[in-house]
Amino acid sequence: MSIYRLFNHTYRDYVEDSEVLHLLNVIILSVAVGMFLFTAQSGVAFAGYASALGAGEFAFGLISALPVLAGLLQIPASYMAEKTGKYKKMFMVGGVIQRLSWIAVAFIPYLFSVGESGLWALIVLVTLAAMSGSFVAITHITLMASVIPGAIRGRYITTRQRVCTISSMVAGLLIAFALDYIPGFAGYTVVFAIGGVAGLIDILMYARLRFRDIPSKPKDFSLLDGIKSSFKIPKTRDFLLFWAFWSFAVNISVPFFNKYAIDVLSLSYMSMIVFGQIVAQILTLIILSRWGVFLDRYGSVPVMMISACASTVGMVVWLWAVPGNVWPLFLFNFLGGLFWCANEATMVNMQLSHTPKYGRTAALAVYAVLTSGAAGIAFIIGGALLEALSPVVAGWELTFMGTPFDHYKLLFIITMLLRFIVIAIFLPRVWNEKGYGLRKAYTLAYQDMATRLRYELSRISFRKR
Asked: Which residue ranges form the domains of the chain, and what is each CATH number?
């Protein structure tokens, strides 16, 4: 059965070519399989694994930053893709190396001692995975752009994201069960080994696919031209600047939410998965299709404004966090499930709509370099701030509405302020692909909702008569 029929969409009305429809389905199904690895490497499992290997706050920030900084390789990856045109081959080779690296990560405790040597092994392998992942990321967007019809881009992206959410939910429960009930490093080995194998299956599902209509570069087009054009084209330049500063503001604190829940709040892995990840994912499944329709109807900028503001305000619930208390985690992820999913859908939508047809990989490489560099710097600064602020805040002996105030909460306040500054300065400058500004978009949305409400009320009135 088609993925689209499962989610009650009408993509068949827009896709007459059965081969293209098959490609669209495989793109969704493959990432559903690969989500086990993505859930393991970016969630509580990796945070717990790094801590078990002996990583402190600064070391954890550094470990989180180095793989992100490996995204700088997307510039040479873009050059190779533009020069050779072998997008699929680069995607496949990079993906296989990336997945094999994570399988090797699973066996670090049995090959190296816990402490410095184990942490260095983790840094090397995760960085290798990220370096090869740069080739995957830069080519995958181009492959997707060659297939997805523009008329359904927002709905397709959100459908894919919903499938990912379901897969991640199942993976999260299995990972939490494994880590809570398989003692010691054996649990981490099981999680990352299975994740690596699932990731390999994800990549190999592309082996027999044929991608058509990938735009070829003009003969006189060079990577340098593509990079220059990224800053000469206003819509691309403003898109790049916003996401670079947004990446910095967000990632000062992002790596430390799970570490805070593990080290300070002393929550179990199952509590973190159920009250955190599962709550967010259930709400994402409920609301995400509406964000897709909103993207297609009103454009990226109005959606991003709502998502960014609401998810930033939601961070305030961490100020009430105390050891053993899961309610701040629950509320934070409740709001994240409603709004943060729109942030991710908007990011992909802008990558496709705000970059030029010719030289798209170059523009995406610039995007990756800026956002990865900003995120990597933010990780390191966040870890350094936590270690520097810890003795200072401890000496203040402050409380917030009866709950202890610690250095993590001060970091969360700092990132909230930075996010609002970025939203106010850079987001209004970003081009909206639907051709109108924020005020008109919200006016149209209000009119549509009012019309829908009047229609529903008239139906109720008619039934009563």
From this structure: 15-460 (1.20.1250.20)
